[in-house]
Specification:
Elements lengths: L3 E12 L2 E13 L4 E5 L6 H8 L7 E6 L2 E2 L5 H10 L1 E5 L10 H12 L3 H14 L15 H13 L5 E5 L7 H18 L2 E5 L3 H6 L2 E6 L2 E7 L1
Parallel strand pairs: 3-8, 3-9, 6-7, 7-8
Antiparallel strand pairs: 1-2, 1-4, 4-5, 9-10
Helix pairs in contact: 3-4, 3-5, 4-5, 5-6
């Protein structure tokens, strides 16, 4: 069974007197272990689709299943639990808590899950080392570069051992070298741990690495290419 099954998804937003059809009948399956990029011009619907799959927004019509579970039939509490336990998120703006250290930011989701202190420490320290931040555990976001902050965000996303990581323009604020290093890290996590990655991106560097590129235009899938 695919880890993600999207069927005939529609989503319309109202902007003043205008109605914007962000998604128009999108159907898409994502298999476990994929490293897939959603691409398309601004307004094509890729971020909207990512938010729908991440249960951050609800469709007007259509079906979304994560690991065989239909999102439409789940309560707010069940959706929150799904996001906490099965999904990881990496955002363009990092979304780190400024007053927390790198260690505490990465640990936060494990605190919410009630993981025991010894296991939390072991898991977080291992993750920070795997993303190249060994020795920087006590630094707060303001003491880290943009690339280092995004690496903390990746560690946080991975902390709960999610089935799927959703990354919205994760390289947009990074220089070329830092982007390549971050993508190296994500590819290693995908390869070594079997974590599924789904990106929304404009970045050609992400598309070069992706093993599948899905192109959206005007809220519809225009191309779906596997490599």
């Amino acid at each position: 069974m695919p880890i993600v099954q999207v069927q005939d998804l529609t989503r319309t937003y109202t902007q003043g007197a205008l109605k914007v059809e962000a998604l128009r009948g999108v159907s898409l399956d994502i298999e476990a272990g994929e490293f897939t990029a959603l691409m398309g011009p601004s307004g094509s619907g890729k971020t909207t689709l990512l938010n729908q799959i991440g249960a951050l927004d609800l469709p007007d019509s259509g079906s979304i299943q994560i690991e065989g579970r239909e999102l439409a039939g789940m309560s707010k509490g069940e959706l929150a639990r799904l996001r906490l336990e099965r999904l990881g998120f990496v955002f363009q703006a990092y979304n780190l808590v400024p007053v927390l250290s790198a260690y505490e930011n990465a640990e936060f989701v494990l605190l919410l899950q009630g993981v025991a202190p010894n296991e939390r420490r072991s898991r977080v320290m291992s993750l920070l080392e795997s993303v190249g931040l060994k020795g920087m555990e006590d630094r707060r976001p303001a003491e880290l570069s943009g690339g280092q902050q995004q690496r903390v965000a990746v560690a946080r996303a991975m902390a709960a051992n999610p089935a799927l990581v959703l990354a919205d323009e994760p390289t947009a604020n990074l220089d070329s070298k830092t982007s390549e290093e971050l993508l190296d890290t994500m590819q290693a996590l995908n390869r070594d741990h079997g974590i599924t990655f789904l990106f929304a991106t404009h970045d050609p560097r992400v598309m070069e690495r992706a093993r599948r590129v899905v192109t959206l235009v005007d809220g519809k899938i225009d191309k779906d290419e596997r490599r």
